[in-house]
Amino acid sequence: MAEAIHTGEIRPPPTVQGTWFAWLRDNLFSSWVNTLLTFGALYIIYFAVSGVWAWGITNAVWEAENRRVCFDINPDGACWAGVLAWFDNFIWGRYPRGEMWRINLGALLIVVWMVPIWLPGVKDKIYVGFSTVFLYPFLGFFLFAGGEKGLFLQVMLSLAIVVLIGNTLNGYHGVRSGRSLPEVVIAGLGMKASSDKVQRKTLLAIFAAAFALVFWAQMGWVLVSVEWNLWGGLFLTLVISGIGIAFALPGGIVLAMGRRSQLPVIRILCTGFIEVFRSVPLITILFMATTMFPLFLPEGFTLNKLVQVIVAVCLFNACYMAEVVRAGLQAIPRGQYEAAMAMGLGYWKMMGLIIMPQALKFMIPNIVGNFIGLLKDTTLVSIIGLFDVLNMLKAVSQDVPWRGLHKEPLVVGAALFFVICFAMSKYSRHLEETLGGGTQR
Fold this sequence. Notes:
Elements: H1 2-7, H2 20-27, H3 32-58, H4 67-73, H5 80-92, H6 100-118, H7 125-145, H8 151-177, H9 181-188, H10 196-218, H11 233-259, H12 264-278, H13 282-292, H14 305-330, H15 334-342, H16 347-362, H17 364-377, H18 389-395, H19 407-435
Helix pairs in contact: 5-11, 5-19, 6-7, 6-8, 7-8, 8-10, 11-12, 11-14, 11-17, 11-18, 12-14, 13-14, 14-16, 14-17, 15-16, 17-19
């Protein structure tokens, strides 16, 4: 290799040149040991796949009234009939079947809300992300829980709807013309020559008018109340993990910055808070949340178990995320801080514009790894009585017609978690390649 470089001729490695057969020879059959290992691995794969295929496909039973009928048809195959009979419960739990459209609508709206983030040419994507985190929960809560709306919820619901419409129009114009919605509105009103102050006042007036119109329209919206104890299945798992993920990153950033603060009181408080939560298992935090939270609340003020669990999950994962963010901050060279201060940037502008974007970019794999761990850890809520997807999978075996059906529901659950976690992992890799982090650093 050194001679080739010296003569100016660099040949590709032998493992990547030649045909497909050459690749197989170089990588799988290069020696008698590798050949034996290859055939041994192929035999294990064939043995495992053929067994699973025979149990799950060839000998499986797809239509039956109960598990006894499945055994009568074929005792050696999977009884997918029970899974199909309970599939709605796996996804929506015990949510009223006549109201499931509300969950489907909520899922559709969050997808529509976040689509502009992935579209090329769309501007102000960071505001789309922030609005999703801080405003969509109010819209989702109204759809999922229903019931009476107080004044605060009506205001936040109206604000969420206006922002959702604005995000959608902004994404449409970004893809179509590469311009943001405010630019399109200003151009449509013929106010390009106006001052920035006049343009801002005009946009605020339009936003206020849209807010007033939506607020007046939503006052007549009424949805049947659905108690939290009817929430369950994959829907409940995604609600808990989604809120936990949305809170974990900003909460972790605040705690990480507090732990690195020059003010002793803030640094000690943040460090103590982080270490306490990181030193206790999540299941212990969940039990403490359901038993001790009411002791710290004012008399007459109560929180249901679901809210207590969500608060516990958010605090627990924010502490773990704080250490990930702190590691990213420590990876930034000191020269970046000095250059930002030399430009005259204050602390918050330095962190928001220079330091934090680099730190988060370098820590994308760790951040997404924590998110995946959070999604899987939500199954622990089944221990304190919430019917998440794991509890619903286990509940099949307690149903009289399908009593004893264990393996098939757990296989379905494993497949659901694999698909979600694999999608998050692939998107993490896409972000690394897009932002130039990871190996490209």
